[in-house]
Each structure stands twice: as structure tokens, then as C-alpha cells.
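tool_call: predict_structure(chain=1)
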Amino acid sequence: MRLQVSSRRQTKARLLLTLLVVATSARGEVAAQNTLSGEIFLAEEGTRTAAHCDAEGTSSFSYLVEGTAAGPVTGTFTETGQVVWGPQEVISVPGGETVGGPLVSLEATFTIRDLEGTPVVTGRKHLLIEQPVSPTEFGGCFVQFNNLFTYARTNSLCYEALFTADEGNKRESGISQLEVISVDPQPSAFFRETFEADPDGKNKCKKKAPKEK
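tool_result:
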């Protein structure tokens, strides 16, 4: 029972890199648009800052990633987050089986910088609701060959973004889809995220975002 991360991760990375090139080329003339709808984050390096794995109880891990941002806002991004999930079970995922538990919480903050390194967007994210375990909604961990694998996948993140380069400090909310995998002690990680804005403010994010400390 292990997450299919090796060859599948490489395939995903190649596919997403292609998507990044297409998105950047297609939207190059509107790179300064004040929306994240269609934005893609991709990273293959990151740091797991903390982890606790309890297959029968509550598990968690924290992460820090830096990578490429492409779409309406082109540049680089950094994101820090913490994932918490409950007791694990065997679940089917594309390519095989893994172990995973229902997501309890996922909190994250992010910054996008333009190609000159200037911060242009800041934001935060939280889990829409506690999710029952499914092929698209889970957190998980296991040890194999002395390596600790931690991972999470969700299509139910609410985001709030502030466009700091805009004179009016435009704000936007919407839904993002995230997948993050981290392996330790090997310096290996995979992270991808896509965004879909909700310009009418009628999305499912009923839960209020956590207050900034």
C-alpha cells in the first residue's frame, strides 16, 4: 500500500510543465490581469517543516514550497501550509491504492512575485469543510525503506487573494485544487495547485476564513 509517486510524479511534472508553457504563451499579453482564475502553481522542491504520522489517529505535516506561477499572473510563488487528517484506511487512487484519512483542516498562505521579484499577490486558504475520505479528498502518511511519505489532495480549498500591485488593492475569492507530496529524508517533493475565481461571490465558501494572527 503505497502512493504511486515515482514514475507518476515525473509524468505529472512533465505534463504540468507543458501546461505552464502553454498558459504563459497564451496569456503573455495579459500577465498583469488581476485574477487568479486559471492560475497554476507548480513546484518539485520543498521543505517539510514538521510531521506527525499516526495511522489510527490524527496525523499532520507542515510544508514550505517555492516554484513557478503561470497564468494570469506570471512569476514565482512561495507557500506555507499545514495539513491535518484523521484515521487512515486503504483507498483507491488513479494508478493503484494508497492509505489516507479524511481531511480535518488545511491552512495555507501564499505570495506571488512577478518576474522582477516584486510581490504582486498575497493570499490565504482554508479547507471548505471537513471532507470524508475519497480519491480526491485525503491526507496520508506511511514509512517505506526508512523514508516517511506525507501527502494530501483536495479540490475544496477556499482562497482569498489580495492584488498588492493594484492601486485599489483588489480582492478576490474562489476555489483551488491542491496536491502535495513530500518524502523524507530524501529531498523530494511535488506540489501543484490550480485556481478558479468566483467573481460573483457565490461560491461554496460559507466558512469564514481564519483571522490573520
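agent: The radius of gyration is 17 Å. Proceeding to next step.
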